[in-house]
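Sat 14:20. Reprocessing the chain from the morning session after the first attempt stalled halfway. Input below, unchanged.
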Amino acid sequence: MDRAAPVLIRIYKEESALEVWKQDRTGKYALLNAYPICKFSGNLGPKLVHGDHQAPEGFYDITPDRMNPNSSEYLAFNTGFPNAYDRSLGRTGSFLMVHGGCRSVGCYAMTDSAMEEIYGLVDEAFKGGQPKVQLQAFPFRMTAQNLARHAGDPNMPFWEMLKAGSDAFLVTEQPPRVAVCDRRYVFNPVLGSDLDPSAPCPVGIDSPAVAEAIQPARTASVIAAPINTGTVAYHANDAQKINASLRGIY
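Finished this time. Tokens:
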């Protein structure tokens, strides 16, 4: 993998795991590393209103202007909540972060050492020209078994929609294009024009259905991904350390 190649982040609440995926030289994304989430607040389910202390679930874009090397929680980047989907439903909240410090009020908190590495990987991708990093936040790994285990939860229609996006990524090994219409996510839409998140979806907007079955070997490797608990040494005021800190994971 090239050091400055694009990255993608996937978060799983129930498993308390954050994964960094990176584009390899074939153009496909492969799992680079996994990290334990130190703490997230709230329960399984999306963030609805300011003050509910819920960590968001959904598909978000991290942009360079959302990086905060001077955070009071060591290092941080803004998830981008609320996105177009959230706003179409009137959901409110701000400054929902992934950060260090290992404490959370609506955010995903990592240990400082894990955040150094995650922040460094995202920063490298931006310096390599990636305009935005997709962040996919899920209640749990989006398998049919896990959905069945949570059958009856009022969030099920929302989670089934998230599963479609998760499947689109795992099948294509590319970040799905994300659009919003009719107050729902549309993944890899056939039509590429801007959509009104609150208006009915145009006829034919949906791409062909994503296959239910993911390649067994790939699924097994993702589920079994080891969690990185090692320490690193990267911070905004000493950026040169990233070269030594990240060398071992490529």
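The domain at 7-175+224-238 is CATH 2.40.440.10 (L,D-transpeptidase catalytic domain-like).
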